[in-house]
Amino acid sequence: MPISAQCACKSVSIELAGDPIRCFVCHCDYCQRMTGSVGNAVAVFPETDVVRMSDAHELDPQMPKWPGVKRYVCPECYSNVHWVNPKAYPGMRLVSLGCFDDPSAFKLSSTVQNQHRPTWCPELDASEAFEAYPG
Questions:
Q1: Residue 135 confidence (pLDDT)
Q2: 120: left (phi over 0), alpha (psi -120 to 50) or beta
Q3: Residue 11 sits in a domain of what CATH number?
Q4: pLDDT tens-place string over residues 88-117
Q5: Which class for 24: exposed (0-12), middle (13-18), buried (19 or more C-beta within 10 A)?
Q6: For residues 113 and 86, what is the distance between their CA atoms, to the nearest angstrom?
Q7: Number of independent structural domains in the chain
Q8: Judging by beta carbons within 10 Å of its beta carbon (0-12, 13-18, 19+), is residue 48 exposed, middle or buried?
Q9: Which of 37, 39, 24, 83 is CA-nearest to residue 57?
Q10: Is residue 134 part of a domain?
Q11: Residue 135 lies in a domain
């Protein structure tokens, strides 16, 4: 049964078949600034699992460390719904966990860039934790 995620105003959505191959939270400084929070909670799906995507505004941030990153946001509420990062996750679609109807249905496999996690933010319940990017 397909699962879907949508922006805050429900104008932009993505529908996916199957389960994510992994879910993680990234605490890097970019993800903190992009979300305005302590990190970015992400579900990773193969592009072949994308059933349908509604129109979204494509952002092409110039990021020397992650060339080719494209973010897809709602042009109305500016929610960051999904994106691609061909260097780190070739052939994958990354979806914001907070955009799913029930983000609690997903189990975190890891947290990354914990060296940037604010000291007041508790450790999250994940299978693995990495101070930097693994690998």
A1: 65
A2: alpha
A3: 2.170.150.70
A4: 899 999 999 999 988 989 999 888 888 889
A5: buried
A6: 19
A7: 1
A8: exposed
A9: 83
A10: no
A11: no
**Binned average pLDDT, 10 residues per bin, the chain of 135 residues:** 92 94 89 84 95 89 79 93 91 95 90 88 86 77
Under DSSP, is residue 70 helix (H, G, I), strand (E, B) or coil? Answer: strand
Report the DSSP pairing between strands 128-129 and 3-6. unpaired
Look up residue 123 and give its DSSP letter: P
pLDDT at res. 69: 86
pTM of the full predicted structure?
A: 0.88
Provide the residue range defining the domain that includes 12. Answer: 3-129
- The reported pLDDT for the residue numbered 1 is 76
Pairing outcome for strands 3-6 and 80-84: unpaired
Q: Residues 102, 97, 5, 43: is their CA dihedral positive or negative?
A: negative
How far from 82 is each of 3, 8, 58, 124, 130, CA to CA, in Å? 14, 13, 10, 22, 23
